[in-house]
């Protein structure tokens, strides 16, 4: 399988190049040269298949010419020891696709663990070493740290803004040790991101290290996210209704992965782009005009994105055709008061606890079902409510339990390096710890 750039489809690179370099030089986004059409037999056969089983079959269709089947099978079953179950709420119309059963309790585990598995495979072949740099505002760093922990040939340095991530998130970044290093930057998330971006363009650092990124525009984080849409379809197909997915969105990687599954032939009736007040995509669907804005802060903060980096890919998957896109994609947005109210309502009515991002997805699905009642609605639960413990507890007035594996992290000592938002200092640090 080769990959092309959305900016120049005649440029083709190897799987290894797309995996390790993340971004083409022309600033486009990598896409697989062909998206395999999986066909009705496949979608009829997957009801009992686990996330890993489905992941293996789709990965085989994509990469059988690059990685031997038995190796691919091992890599994927190792990457996905957890499942992505669909839970039905008692209202008889809402299904929740729980994507938070991985180690960092957010859907980003799926992409990070698959990417780590693939990188580990290529580095083992070549005896190379790669140094991954990530800036995080919370969730990405945890998934990357836990996904890449102990993978031979990989060193990870995570930069996060001091005092701006939740306690649980910080524990995920700073207590693992081994090949994971955390830097606490005296500054904002944007400062962290600027340091990482400058590092990628620094001549000396690039001579010294093979630098790589693990952010969500890497196509290898996106591909595995298509698996759980397929897995969810397998769990609700017996209901015999048209299937609708509502995806709480920020950078639109998750929704693009749904579009990828659709291109593979997954029979989806409608996708719903659900956002907070960072509503550029719902607005685009209304008006046909795409106008990115500076982000605004909300309680669903992993979706506070004003210029979604996967928008290009989403539109590209629908053949750059607005009418095609509009037929399969609806958009809705909600403010914090509506989000809190939805969290409270779902808890009161169904005793189900949603994180604020999931509640935005739930609201989007409700809006769509008002005019389209006879569908099977699935909303994606992107994080475990315990990740946003204080906020959730303040809304539902009931304690939220932290799962045992994470409770254990809470007791471990924190290790981080403190640093100013200063590139010279960051560069020295990298060169000295090489
Ligand atoms: C990252 C994240 C999102 C947004 O996903 P995108 O792929 O960027 O649209 C939503 N919810 C949670 C909990 C997240 O961590």
From TrEMBL:
Catalyzed reaction equations: O-phospho-L-homoserine + H2O = L-threonine + phosphate
Give all residue intervals belonging to the Tryptophan synthase beta chain-like PALP domain. 97-366
Q: Which UniProt keywords apply?
A: Amino-acid biosynthesis, Lyase, Pyridoxal phosphate, Threonine biosynthesis
What pathway is this protein said to act in by its record?
A: Amino-acid biosynthesis; L-threonine biosynthesis; L-threonine from L-aspartate: step 5/5
Q: Which GO biological process annotations does it have? A: threonine biosynthetic process
Q: Name one Pfam family in it.
A: PALP
Residue ranges constituting the Threonine synthase N-terminal domain according to the UniProt record: 2-80
The residue stretches assigned to a coiled coil in this entry are none
Which residues are annotated as modified residue N6-(pyridoxal phosphate)lysine in the UniProt record? 108
Q: Which GO terms describe its molecular function?
A: pyridoxal phosphate binding; threonine synthase activity
The cofactors named for this UniProt entry are: pyridoxal 5'-phosphate
Q: Which InterPro entries match?
A: Ser/Thr_deHydtase_PyrdxlP-BS, Thr_synth_N, Thr_synth_N_sf, Thr_synthase-like, Threonine_Synthase, TrpB-like_PALP, TrpB-like_PALP_sf
Q: Which residues form the signal peptide?
A: none
| The enzyme's E.C. designation | 4.2.3.1
**Which family, according to the similarity comment?**
Belongs to the threonine synthase family.
Among PANTHER family, the record links this protein to: THREONINE SYNTHASE FAMILY MEMBER, THREONINE SYNTHASE-LIKE 2
Q: What NCBIfam families does its record include?
A: thrC (TIGR00260)
Protein's recorded name: Threonine synthase
Q: Which organism is it from?
A: Larkinella knui
